[in-house]
Specification:
This protein is 18% helix and 29% strand. By secondary structure, the protein is α/β, with parallel strands linked by helices. It has 2 domains: 134 residues, Translation factors (Elongation Factor Tu (Ef-tu), domain 3), CATH 2.40.30; 145 residues, 3-Layer(aba) Sandwich (Rossmann fold). It has a 7-stranded antiparallel beta sheet with strand order 4-3-7-1-2-6-5. The protein has a 6-stranded mixed beta sheet with strand order 10-9-8-12-13-11, covered by helices on one side. Bound molecules: flavin-adenine dinucleotide.
Length: 300
């Protein structure tokens, strides 16, 4: 297999450990020799997991086929359902990685599969492999080099990525000022993270609150946060065109010393986009907004 020729690969991994972390999270550890071919470019690196297609057919690659080519050879309707998940921890030497799955109700494939998965089960993944095109290689986190102040906002689906970002910052010799706002269903979901004096994690537990109330709570918390004047672009009124776009990514450059990464349910991300770009007047090139999922809509 020559990975240098191919951006994406599809191959099978085995569940080798399972741990319930909290009320909403279960961690599965996956292993395969082929994990050693994977390219991990950023702490928020994600992959796709492949589930039964809409007719309930299980995806399996015949032995003589290359996984990705076989996937492409199928009619679109026959292809497996793909779901995005973050590599919470990646251990190259051991050929292993962890994924923290949110357990949610409703008809779905990924969350239910994770709940029922047992050690020894297999699943196919689609991952970027060594030799892939870094510009499009499944990650977003790319703060400017000398950044001094960071803002992270995540709901539970983006929490694995946000905590992985915090892990990576904790390994830097000079740690930046970080304000993190994490909205999670219950107090047990406030997962452990490294600490340093300039890391301020604000946990918002939703309990029985409605989505609207929970969004209001996070908007109020952020509205009260003193954001750096240097981030504010007061010279232009920024338009909010393209609001149907699920993702809007930062394009910051060296010398910018503020950077924000915002991931979660679409209505939360949209509300924060309005707050930060209009009310707070922060330059949109400094913020990545990512709608990781949409309430009432299955991922595509
Ligand atoms: C780049 C990226 C990285 C991601 N990383 C992670 C991760 O590490 N861990 C993780 O758990 N999720 C992660 N997600 C989110 C995950 O892909 C979605 O939540 C996905 O919809 C789950 O698939 P499903 O089959 O369980 O539900 P779907 O079949 O997609 O949806 C079925 C129904 O469930 C609802 N639904 C979907 N997710 C949730 C939820 N979390 N809570 C309540 N209702 C929900 C949908 O709105 C829909 O009504 C990530 C998404 C992206 C884009």
């Amino acid at each position: 297999m020559n990975c240098a020729l191919s951006v994406l690969q599809i191959f099978k991994v085995k569940v080798c450990a399972k741990q319930f972390l909290s009320q909403s999270f279960v961690r599965l550890t996956f292993s395969s020799e082929r994990v050693k071919e994977m390219a991990v470019y950023g702490p928020d690196q994600w992959i796709k997991l492949l589930f039964d297609n809409l007719s309930g057919q299980h995806f399996s690659v015949p032995e003589e086929f290359d996984g990705y080519r076989y996937f492409l050879s199928l009619n679109k309707a026959d292809r497996p359902r793909l779901r995005s998940y973050t590599l919470r921890e990646f251990r190259l030497q051991q050929g292993e990685f962890d994924i923290d799955f949110v357990l949610h109700s409703g008809s779905n494939c990924a969350s239910l599969w994770a709940l029922e998965a047992a050690v020894g089960d297999h699943i196919y993944i689609r991952a970027h492999c060594v030799g892939s095109n870094r510009a499009r290689a499944g990650f977003v986190w790319s703060p400017p080099k000398q950044v001094q102040q960071l803002l992270l906002v995540a709901d539970e689906t983006a929490l694995p990525a946000a905590l992985s970002i915090i892990d990576s910052l904790s390994r830097q010799p000079e740690k930046p000022l970080v304000n993190a706002f994490f909205s999670v269903p219950s107090a047990s979901d406030c997962l452990l993270s490294p600490t340093w004096p300039q890391l301020h994690i604000h946990w918002l537990t939703r309990g029985d609150s409605s989505t609207a109330d929970a969004n209001d709570e996070i908007l109020t918390a952020l509205n009260n946060l003193a954001l750096p004047h240097l981030a504010a672009d007061h010279s232009t009124v920024q338009s909010l065109e393209n609001t149907d776009k699920l993702w809007q990514l930062a394009s910051s450059c060296a010398g910018d010393n503020f950077y924000a990464w915002i991931g979660g349910e679409r209505t939360m991300v949209d509300a924060l986009r309005r707050l930060l770009l209009t009310t707070k007047g922060i330059d949109k090139k400094l913020i990545s907004f990512m709608a990781y999922w949409r309430r009432g809509k299955a991922a595509q």
